[in-house]
Design brief:
The chain has helices at residues 28-39, 57-60, 75-78, 86-92, 135-138, 145-165, 178-188, 227-234, 250-256, 269-278, 292-299, 312-315, 330-341, 347-354, 359-374; strands at residues 16-23, 44-50, 63-66, 100-105, 119-124, 172-175, 192-194, 215-218, 241-244, 261-265, 281-284, 304-307, 322-325, 376-380, 389-393. By secondary structure, the chain is α/β, with parallel strands linked by helices. Strands 3-2-1-4-5-6-7 form a 7-stranded parallel beta sheet, with helices on both faces.
Length: 394
């Protein structure tokens, strides 16, 4: 672990570098990165690989370095196949001009080589789930799945050793949930602060005029998300299920879906908000490290029906903002849906719960953390007429 005594704060504005695993889609981790960009407006982004246009423009504008994986054939789409190269790729990033390094990590970003004298804070979305508990589902798709699973099994010991050994490169850990804090403790034997990810509760808000008769899933269509569970559950129901998202399981899920299940692919934020507002309830059949979608749904005043494990236990209040089911079985999900139908949901009460995870709250918690642990302060610019916030060492 970095010794803070070796890196005393200097006067003036600190130089901040951001490191993110990869920039190929715009999901929860990228929403955290966007808020970090806004907290540190001069920071530049370093990443393993980048697919321009697939993330927020503010993020695209900040990218200054990618790894050698960027030059590999089909890397933004086939990056999973290059997993054994991730350690060398993250260590190939050269960051020299930084006083503070902030990694946004769900794979190897936290293992970046830290510039001499820099302070490293890692915001961890999860320790690598395909190494520490979800290995079986990582390659459950596509051609050659058995060969890929065997390859993962072969390289996992090396990757686990690398993951644990490089935890000492982090001075301070921040976990995105209590769930992930416990996993950091188990995997790295380190303590972490908890700061939940930001949710745009200003954009996602109820529409009293909205209403529909469908249930909703908004998710990547990947094995560990367990969308198959919901699709099979609705095979024995009359109610419609709308599935938003894309992924490697899309064709397989369509093949088992009944007439009442529709797949709409990726949609705009505005369309997703409309779907949130109009659903009877949103479904979360898998285990999320935190899970931003359930909070967005609640911000729109709609309840969530979720598996009772992972981050949902921190964001959904049973009987007030949603319903839990305790076994990942179609019958258990159908029973939870039936229970939800008997509850008179209060949209205002549901929305109030979501405000605990607002972007403003995230920014305040992050500022408090950096002030108390690294001595940073945000203040008004000294330039006349300039309303920007000035970042400095206190």
């Amino acid at each position: 672990m970095a010794d803070s005594a070796l890196a005393p704060p200097r006067s003036g504005e600190p130089r901040v570098a951001l490191v993110h695993d990869w920039l190929t889609v715009n999901r929860g981790a990228e929403k955290v990165l966007l808020e970090l960009c806004r907290l540190f407006p001069s920071a530049e982004i370093h990443t393993l690989l980048w697919n321009p246009g697939n993330v927020h423009p503010e993020i695209d504008r900040r990218v200054v370095q990618t790894s050698f994986l960027q030059r590999f054939p089909g890397a933004p789409r086939l990056y999973r196949n290059y997993l054994p190269l991730f350690p060398k790729a993250i260590e190939s990033l050269k960051i020299s001009d930084a006083d503070i390094l902030i990694s946004s990590s769900h794979a190897v970003a936290k293992s970046v080589i830290v510039p001499e004298g820099a302070r490293h804070v890692s915001y961890v979305h999860t320790p690598m789930r395909y190494l520490w508990g979800d290995t079986a589902s990582y390659f459950q798709f596509g051609r050659g799945r058995h060969l890929k699973s065997a390859a993962l099994k072969a390289v996992s010991p090396y990757l686990r050793r690398f993951d644990v050994r490089t935890a000492d490169r982090v001075e301070h850990f921040i976990a995105n949930s209590e769930n992930v804090r416990e996993r950091i403790r188990q995997v790295y034997d380190r303590e972490a602060a908890v700061i939940h990810p930001p949710v745009d509760t200003d954009f996602y808000h109820p529409d009293p005029a909205a209403g529909g008769d469908y249930y909703l899933i908004a998710s990547a269509l990947e094995p560990h998300k367990r969308i198959d569970l919901a699709v099979r559950a609705f095979a024995g129901m009359d109610a419609p299920l709308v599935v938003v998202g894309a992924g490697t399981q899309q064709a397989e899920l369509r093949s088992i879906a009944g007439h009442n299940v529709s797949f709409v692919g990726r949609v705009s934020d505005e369309e997703l908000r409309r779907l949130y507002r109009g659903c009877r309830a949103a479904l979360l059949p898998g285990v999320e490290d935190f899970g931003i979608v359930p909070v967005e749904v609640q911000a729109c005043g709609r309840p969530v029906i979720c598996f009772k494990k992972g981050g949902a236990c921190e964001t959904v209040i049973p009987g007030e903002t949603g319903v839990y089911f305790e076994a990942q079985k179609a019958g258990a999900l159908r029973a939870a849906i039936a229970e939800s139908e008997q509850i008179a949901w209060d949209p205002e009460r549901i929305r109030r719960n979501s405000l605990r995870f607002s972007r403003a709250y995230f920014r305040d918690r992050m500022k408090q953390f950096f002030a108390s642990h690294l001595g940073l302060a945000w203040g008004s610019s000294s330039s006349p007429g300039d309303r920007r916030k000035e970042l400095r060492f206190a």
